[in-house]
Structures are given as C-alpha cells and as structure tokens.
Amino acid sequence: TASLGSLEEEHLFELIARLRDRGVAVMYVSHRLDEIFAICDSVTVLKDGRHVTTVPTAGIDHVGLVEAMVGRDMAGDLYPPRRPAPGRDGAPLLHVRRASSPGRIDDIALDLWPGEIVGLAGLIGSGRTSLLRAIFGADEFATREVRVDGVDVPASPVAAIEAGIAFVTEDRKLEGLATELTNQANLESTTLSGQGWRYRPARSQARALEVATKVQLDLGALEKRARQLSGGNQQKVVIGKWLAVEPRVLLCDEPTRGIDVGAKAEVYRLLRGLADEGLGVLLASSELPEILGVCDRVLVLRDGRLVRTFDEGIPTEEEVMHAAALDSMEVPA
C-alpha cells in the first residue's frame, strides 16, 4: 500500500478478504502496523534475519509489536520531544512564491524559518512531491520564485544545492542511491567545491566519515555496496550524502517509506536534531501520524493547491483529512 490512496487500500483489503474466504492463505508484509491489526489473524516478527515471535494479533497491541520489532521498550520514544516553536520574526530562511507545474501544482506560496519542521500533508496526487521538486528545480516544466536567506535561487538542482537546499527524494533506489557503488562513494557523491561539482578526495572522504557518524551509520558499512544495506540504513546514506553539502534547507519526501519502526525513530530524531541546529525542514508524508508527531506546522495540499495551514497547535487527524479531502476553504498566497 506504500503508493496507494485510501480508496485503493480499501479495494486491496476487500480483495484479500475475498481470497481468504475462498481458502487462500495470505502472507502480508508491511511496515504499517494499523494494516497488520486490521487484516491479519497472526503476526510474525523478524529482526536481523532471525525469528523473534509469532502471536495472534488479538494477543498483542501496537506497543508490544513495536517493542518486538526493535528489541527495546519504545513507549513514548517514537517521536522526539518538541521544543518551543521557533520564532518567525524577520525574513524567512526559505521563501517560495508562485510555485506552479502544469497539471500538478498551481500558485503555491510558503515560508520556512530556521529551526522548524513544516509538514506537507495531502492525499496521493495532491501535489506534495511536485512542490518539493519545483522548489529544488528538478521539474523542468515548473515555475517558481525561491529565495534562501533573501537571495534568489535559479530553477536548477545545481543552483539549489549551491544555495543550501538539499532534497531527499521519495524513491531512494531509483533517485537517491547508486546502489552498485559503495556507501562511502554515495556519501561523497554530493561534495561541492566553490566552482560547482568538483570531487576533492581528501575533503570528501573526511566529510563522508563525519556524516556517517552523524546519521549513526555503522562505519563498517562504508565499504559495502548500497544495495547490501537494509532499507533503514540505505535511508541514512541518502540523508547523509545531503548533509555532506552542509545545507540550510532540507526537503524530505516520504523519508521513512519502507523502513522499520526503529529506523523511523532514528530518522525522526535526526530531523529534530538538524532543526535544533538551525536547519529548516520541509517534510512531505502520506502518513498522518508522522506529520502530526514530528512537525511544528502543517500545510495541507489538495488538487495541487494549498488549502489549509495549521500554524498554531497540532491539528487532529480528522482536521487534516477534512482539509485534504473535503474542505473547500483555500488559503490565499
């Protein structure tokens, strides 16, 4: 269901139920625990290639299942604690106006201040990914006005990187990693010099070690190929390679897709730590608990437009879903 909307999920679950009723045995693999409890009769946990437990779903709750998956008590430990919301005085770190891409997004405006994590919520096709790609200059058909620290940023990925914008894409295997290269090479791949893209071995290697430590990647994995790592460790490499360019703004599209709950917690702590250091993080996710658990503010997109902004307090899932699917109120740019 990773790329399905809620309606498609319902159809899938109905199909599984019909197959079960016909006597078909179904083995269902998912990182989304609500799905496990909704459709499965029993659940088996594997960790590091070993069997941990098999229990009836009726005999375990979410907390117990998470603890079995990560091997430790996770109660209250999934999302890092929030600190007081950063001030939004003066000029924003990231200033976006008139972001448009034909058939995808239309005239979106937003601001991002240092030290905050802003969530982009919306249904599949709402325009979250297209907005991030437009800001980064990765969509050749997009138009936008983007400033970082008050300086205009031309519409190209190289210009965005040089201005301090990094982009963690939603598909790490297709766009985020060179899976046949070593993790060391992946971490070095974004290294910039003052003249643009220029590989400098001594600086690149030292920086790779530094960011590997920062994202808590086992240094023994540096000489392995990226395809040999788990999804969670691959995602650490993707985030780490962008930290190597010392960004001011981090754009994250589905940063925890396809990784286990323990790795998710590590990513959340990393993002909060980066925000505490003064970065601005713009996080797009299809998982509402993630948006509500991690972000300081929430922007809701629908049909390519910004339709609701929750600036004060954390909204409920119902409020966000109402805005994403039903609410006709639009916020002027």
What is the helix fraction of residues, given as a range? 25-40%
Beta-strand share of residues: 15-25%
Largest sheet: 6 strands, mixed
Count the beta strands. 14
In spatial order, strands of the major sheet run: 8-11-12-5-13-14
User: Order of helices and strands, N to C?
Assistant: HHEEHEEEHEEHEHHEEHHEHEHEEH
Indicate the mean pLDDT.
Answer: 86
The total count of helices amounts to 12
Cα distance, first to last residue?
Answer: 33 Å
Uncertain stretches = 192-197, 328-333
Radius of gyration: 21 Å
Which structural class should the secondary elements be placed in? alpha/beta
Outline type: globular
What do you see in this structure?
The protein has 333 residues and is α/β, with parallel strands linked by helices. 35% of the residues lie in helices and 22% in strands. The strands form 4 sheets. The chain has a 6-stranded mixed sheet with strand order 8-11-12-5-13-14, with helices on both faces. A 4-stranded antiparallel sheet has the order 4-3-6-7, with helices on one face.
